[in-house]
DNA sequence: CTATTTATGTATTGATTGCTACAGATATGG
DNA sequence: CCATATCTGTAGCAATCAATACATAAATAG
């Protein structure tokens, strides 16, 4: 049996282009026509390779985390818990003000924007978000056990707080905030935990 | 000359229904068909009374601020600046976890969601947002002059920070966060300014 | 070679989008 | 009553939406 005609485009490259469009225009604001144009393929190729619009979006979301969420891993690898939070907030400010990227954060945008729409997308977002928060909390709990955290700071509450501040920064970035403005928010949030 | 046939529906009531739908589904996620059904009128009546979809949305946004942003005025009327911030954050938690309302904040949703779409909407959002922040900053500057603020806290930076935290809370609320979760974020943000 | 399998490009599907033409209804002014 | 002005419901506009039918092209297996 034959193996069929080989695919003529690079799936990862096409996915990157789709991600770019989704990032800029959101899930509902992006049409198949825009996607196929940006990806350089025709609708049948898109559907054969990625399923449908929702599946393509979920794959783009996954790629977004892998390609643009690396500063997260760097932060979690910081030697101290306080250094992790520092890295997280400052790199978020840096990332969100990078003018090479569309404004704002694709995940935040999707959480806020797809509420009544595709349920599977919401589930994927919720699990990615809670996993990220859990990793921060675990790191803080370790620091707490080692006595390296202010004693009146609860790791769970503080992890959630840091996430909320970052999400707020993403909203500001979507509204046009620049690097300086975002960095000031980050520095302000850091004042709660004296170095 | 005659004055014409009188309108058979209540504009404010219809606007409230439109607001409800926009709040739940966002601007792009709401169709004229959904709007006319919720408002109990037909398309020609909608267009005659409100212009078009974008104008209707902007009027709904304005009504949203008037009807659901009253806790903002209460906060600004608080006797102390610290009390204002307290009121702002706690009432935001309360408002965002009110299960009578759709999830999240319509303004935050719109900032994040309409970026490439209607430009006039973005302008309206930006001016409303910066006006709100300016009012908070002005109140803090007054407190600063009176020596009622921590000396190392800049009023402008702190006002922006409080706004960002509230916007982060709105994102969490859109993602399904409950009252307790939001209140913990609010209390955490308040710890920066010892009572 | 033929048979099979998969990808591609064209062209199109039915449904939905925001919006409106049109005719009839209901008010006021004369 | 008549003329004018505005609203209402039906019905439908062109454009766009996500998704596909179909024929052809390009690969492997035998």
For the termini of chain A, the CA-CA separation is: 66 Å
Q: Label the structural class of chain A.
A: mainly alpha
Radius of gyration of chain A from CA coordinates? 19 Å
Helix content of chain A: over 70%
**Helical run tally of chain A:** 10
Shape of chain A: elongated
Largest protein interface, residues of each chain: A-B, 44 and 44 residues
Strand segment count of chain A: 0
Instruction: Give the oligomeric state of the chains in this entry, treating copies of one chain as homo and distinct chains as hetero.
Output: homodimer
H/E element order of chain A: HHHHHHHHHH
- Residue windows where pLDDT falls under 50 for at least 5 positions of chain A: none
Mean pLDDT of chain A: 96
**Sheet of most strands of chain A:** none
Strand content of chain A: under 5%
Question: What does this entry look like structurally?
Answer:
- The structure is a homodimer of 195-residue chains.
- Chain A is mainly alpha-helical and 195 residues long.
- Helices cover 70% and strands 0% of the residues of chain A.
- Chain A is built from ten helices and no strands.
- Chain A has helices spanning 11-25, 32-39, 43-50, 53-68, 70-76, 81-96, 106-113, 119-145, 155-174, 179-190.
- The longest helix of chain A has 27 residues, at 119-145.
- The radius of gyration of chain A is 19 Å and the shape is elongated.
- Chain A starts with 10 loop residues before the first helix and ends in a 5-residue tail after the last helix.
- The model of chain A has no long low-confidence stretch (mean pLDDT 96).
- The A-B interface holds A 24-26, 28-29, 102-104, 108-109, 111-113, 115-117, 125-126, 129, 157-158, 160-161, 163-172, 174-176, 181, 184-185, 187-189, 191-192 and B 24-26, 28-29, 102-104, 108-109, 111-113, 115-117, 125-126, 129, 157-158, 160-161, 163-172, 174-176, 181, 184-185, 187-189, 191-192.
- The first copy, chain A, binds a DNA duplex (30 and 30 nucleotides) through residues 1-8, 31-33, 41-45, 47-49, 52-53.
